[in-house]
């Protein structure tokens, strides 16, 4: 209404020319019908430089933002493992030269930095991530560029990427042992409390399926966003529901608010105990005595008596900027770097395809602080012992339950008949 | 009213186009080209903010809302394209047996998606702007309201995990309107579309600023009451600028998705919306190139400085922001004029302070 039609025409014309030019310039890319959509097939050749006496590796952890409190420890223990490996001769005789990147608790940043590490820094593999959201942001990038990502935290399972190695527990190594423990204690009613994101939502979906099989009744289910600490109204619902046990899948600092609300509402471990899957030695001190007496399900505890654990604890306590306590996720991160070393040396090469082939054809094991773990070359997870610990007054865990042997990883729960086959089929083929 | 000669601005846009469309794809690595594409998306939104805030005086602190409309419309289409006949994987995780939510269905169609990217922000900004401007809501009230909307939308998306992917967002897109996204040639194409759209947006605001509408907009910004006395309705003038800026934010959001490969509520919430404003203020909100260049500079700083100095980068950004506001209220693009005086700035490029005393007085009363 304000412009003359002549000006408008000129404007439309320029715009059209610009867009057409852009389209024409690049109209040579592959289309869906060209059948090149397979993972990694169209990736550029790897630029990893193995000619010198060093190998570059990428560490990708949130050093800033909400997850920094947990992920800085993972970053630090990766540095310690790299120093240890370098002192003992490196990987295939090459010293590790690491590139540390900040994921900034922002999932697109994780994707951006993964691409940078693989294409600019040309690293052999990337180690890090914590939340499932960060892993889901990294996954398409490593699959596209045919890189390697080592993920050190327990998670919800139902995933097995050819480009990711999972050194934390999958569902049947943490959630299912926790449910078995509850069943053995005669628990009849259970309340689910979790952070509102992919891990707790999925874990609880699995818990509900298994609970039905075990005859445990779910009497409530509440979620609070990751960055919110106020659990008062949700805990009031727990008080009203009077469950035998609370299954806690809350992550990060939100746990502090939850435990505070739990204590303020007069709930006690004697009558309404909590079993957590994200409270470890690192987090427990922040919650004070209110958390004492409650339970956690992990594979590794600092109190674990194995041949390798004392040395690990000692090295960590002596390491600069260490938190002084060891915990499951950092132990899994420690495993991840050694597992990569074992894989590369079994393959005799840093090449991703050679590493994946070695994982399939050879037996890869590592004497971890939690015991001797072995890699499943098909699903890229490791075997782990299941443990339930009870928090004592020193914020350490007294082990009250242990699986009778190491639990083989089963991310798609194929060995469990209560998990519907059609869901498994849908998930295995689904994207997004 | 003095003005920059048209050929100066036009040749500037031309040079910008040559650098973005021809030089950048030749000299930059894949990684930096992708990053530049991302900055272009923020720059497209920033051009719109320049129009609404720099020329129109409306401090739009919630452009993340419109960025989200475009981004999620595009992301839903790409997710469905990748999933084919199946329900997207993340939905299966939470409720395996439920069907696709009804509001997702139309986004299977490419045409509907493109239409939605254009029409959704126009309708949303149209209704919102009409309601606000007709009631003469402005200044701090307007800014806070838009900001609150961005917070509300980010919270809504975070809490509807099965419908929108929640905090994890939508990612893992394999196809872009039939093109395989992994193919390097197609990545260049997606980049060129974003860069081309940025040039188109620059041309559009250049045309706006030259037109009578542009003059009316500046007049409304500087003396709304006088414009009203002259017989124009300031509400309509502001509404047009607001709707156009919303449309640009939506286009930026839509292109952000195939370039970055993921969209999450954190990219559209309060902090993200403020970062968009910061780039615009940094570059010079009322100038033609300032908003776009400022947004790109902030984006670049985030990728490169944030990488070498993760703890310090936000402090640098904050410090720069304070210094620029104190010493160069019209942004970095006013720097050449300040020192040399060889370009004569038009009054349109010298906006009043974001909140002047008179306006605050008005707010109080």
TrEMBL record, chain A:
Keyword Signal: yes
Gene3D superfamilies: 3.40.50.2300
CDD domains, A to Z: PBP1_FmdD-like (cd06355)
Signal peptide as annotated in the record: 1-26
Keywords: Signal
InterPro entries from the UniProt entry: ABC_urea-bd_UrtA (IPR017777), Peripla_BP_I (IPR028082)
Record-linked Pfam families: Peripla_BP_5
PROSITE patterns reported in the protein's UniProt record: PROKAR_LIPOPROTEIN (PS51257)
Matches recorded under NCBIfam families: urea_ABC_UrtA
Protein name listed in UniProt: Urea ABC transporter substrate-binding protein
UniProtKB/TrEMBL annotation, chain B:
Entry keywords, A to Z: Cell membrane, Membrane, Transmembrane, Transmembrane helix
One Gene Ontology CC term in the entry: plasma membrane
Membrane topology recorded in Swiss-Prot or TrEMBL: Multi-pass membrane protein
Superkingdom field: Bacteria
An MF annotation (GO) of this entry: branched-chain amino acid transmembrane transporter activity
Pfam families for this protein: BPD_transp_2
Record NCBIfam families: urea_trans_UrtC
The name this protein goes by in its record: Urea ABC transporter permease subunit UrtC
UniProt keyword Transmembrane helix, yes or no: yes
InterPro entries, per the entry: ABC_transp_permease, ABC_transptr_urea_perm_UrtC, LivM-like
Localisation: Cell membrane
The keyword Metal-binding belongs to this UniProt entry's keyword annotation: no
CDD domains on file: TM_PBP1_LivM_like
Residues spanning the membrane: 6-29, 36-54, 60-80, 110-133, 140-161, 188-209, 239-264, 270-300, 312-332
